[in-house]
Amino acid sequence: MITVTTPPATTRGNIFRLGIIYLVVPFIGFVGFSQLFGWTGLF
Fold first, then answer.
1. For the segment 4-25, what is each residue's pLDDT rounded down to a tens digit?
2. Is 39 exposed, middle or buried (0-12, 13-18, 19+ CB in 10 A)?
3. How far apart are CA 37 and CA 20, in angstroms?
4. Contact of 6 with 15, CB cutoff 8 Å
């Protein structure tokens, strides 16, 4: 919380957006990893 003029709605939006990023990025990475190594029969 560096800026005091930031409204709580914007802060919640940023936290929600970061949460989406932290949930989606590992999921995409896991799907890409399984698709890449799925050809070798590991997945």
1. 665 666 787 888 888 888 888 8
2. exposed
3. 26
4. no
